[in-house]
Specification:
21% strand; 12 helices; Arc Repressor Mutant, subunit A; alpha/beta; D-Maltodextrin-Binding Protein, domain 2
Length: 314
């Protein structure tokens, strides 16, 4: 028996013979299958002989009570079963997507995606599919991973997730990370900025606490430097930090996500941080790699992927 099948032959292994072989197994005879399928028995026999030629062995042996599958036939039958189950799931998902009248999807996302990124996507889905309901939890990146892994969320939006067999990455997009300051701050019009520049100029710093992933990014920059950085304010609340920056109380730190409106209005300025120790901030859309997704979840993941892809063009 052949030990491998060429790619071109593998394509042929997914033709309509799959249904023929399935019906032969169910009917335990070629004639019985031909009657169910309303085709000539010779057409089924010809298809099965082609498969046998590809695999280099017999699929069935004749017995007193009809056909009996060989070891090769058992292996092919298992493959046929998987293919037909997959086709059934695909057809069900396509039917749902064509006329998605109702459905529900849960999204777990980092808080910075709440003001602008996620609302745009959810609004577009609700407009197109008014009977699809959406539940959004805005939490930290670590909690997003846990929610998707545990099945509490269908789709996750987080930063820099670790590699995991339990998670599937839909898209990962680098987004700028930097200092957020008021428009009249001395660094507001700078092209780039270093933590050193802020320390030397005596600009008060507004740091997130240890529960926020961006704190680790800042610590990585500071720990290997000779700088003595003492934050003026520490808070896990992003809105609070941004409000302080807007009032001129210091420099907060985050990506451009979450302050899109303020940047458009000019009420805040964003200056990218540059440092060899600064890890990139990758906005990542994830789903479970272990559970099948509903049509509503697939649609949400694709909408978020398309929205994240647009960030690359900005």
């Amino acid at each position: 028996m052949k030990t491998s099948i060429k790619r071109s032959d593998a394509v042929r292994l997914h033709a309509h013979w799959v249904l023929y072989f399935h019906e032969v197994i169910q009917a335990r005879s070629i004639r019985g299958a031909a009657k169910v399928l309303n085709v000539a028995p010779s057409a089924i026999s010809r298809q099965l002989k082609d498969v046998e030629a590809l695999i280099g062995g017999k699929l069935m042996e004749r017995g007193s009570d009809g056909f009996r599958l060989t070891a090769a036939g058992e292996a092919v039958a298992d493959h046929v079963s998987q293919v037909l189950r997959g086709l059934g799931r695909m057809q069900s998902s396509l039917d749902e997507l064509r006329g998605l009248r109702r459905g529900h999807v849960t999204v777990a996302a980092v808080a910075v995606s709440a003001p602008d990124f996620v609302p745009k996507v959810v609004a577009s889905i609700r407009k197109a599919y008014p009977r699809v309901t959406v539940h959004c939890d805005f939490i930290g990146s670590r909690q997003v991973l846990e929610s998707v892994r545990d099945g509490r969320a269908d789709v996750g939006i987080c930063f820099n997730p670790p590699s995991s067999r339990a998670l599937r990455t839909i898209i990962s997009v680098p987004v700028p990370f930097g200092a957020v300051v008021s428009p009249d701050n001395m660094f507001a019009k700078s092209r780039t900025l270093r933590i050193y520049d802020l320390v030397e100029a005596g600009v008060p710093m507004i740091f997130p606490d240890d529960s926020v992933s961006t704190r680790a990014l800042l610590e990585n920059v500071i720990v290997d430097s000779s700088l003595e950085v003492q934050p003026a304010v520490v808070s896990a609340n992003r809105e609070f930090a941004i409000a302080l920056a807007k009032l001129g109380a210091g420099a907060a730190f985050q990506t451009t996500l979450g302050i899109e409106r303020e940047l458009r209005e000019g009420s805040l300025a964003f200056v990218p941080l540059v440092d060899p120790k600064l890890e990139p901030s990758n906005l990542t859309i994830i789903t479970s790699a272990l559970r099948p997704q509903s049509a509503a979840a697939i649609m949400m993941a694709e909408a978020l992927r398309a929205s994240a892809a647009k960030l690359l063009q900005q």
